[in-house]
Design a protein that fits this description.
Layout lengths: L1 H8 E2 L6 H14 L8 E4 L7 E4 L1 H9 L10
Parallel strand pairs: 1-2
Antiparallel strand pairs: 2-3
């Protein structure tokens, strides 16, 4: 729900609109991202437009499912 997104998933100090919440939820659904697992973030500062950021965990998970991915070294 929009209230859950506003209370738990928004980063920054801005107030997100219903339209921004709807866009975020629909993009997460379409891209199969779970914001509760930190796979996507909704960020808003001041009066600027909200930004949707894909988390590192989502990119790592997708890479591991690719047959050409050979892992990583730290």
């Amino acid at each position: 729900s929009p209230n859950i997104v506003r209370n738990y998933l928004v980063n920054g100090n801005g107030s997100v609109t219903d339209q921004e919440v709807a866009m975020f939820l629909n993009l997460c659904k379409y891209q199969r991202l779970n914001p509760f697992l930190k796979e996507a973030y909704l960020v808003k500062y001041g009066n600027q437009a909200a930004t949707i950021v894909t988390g590192k965990e989502a990119l790592t998970k997708r890479a591991m499912h690719n047959a050409n991915y050979r892992g990583q070294q730290a």
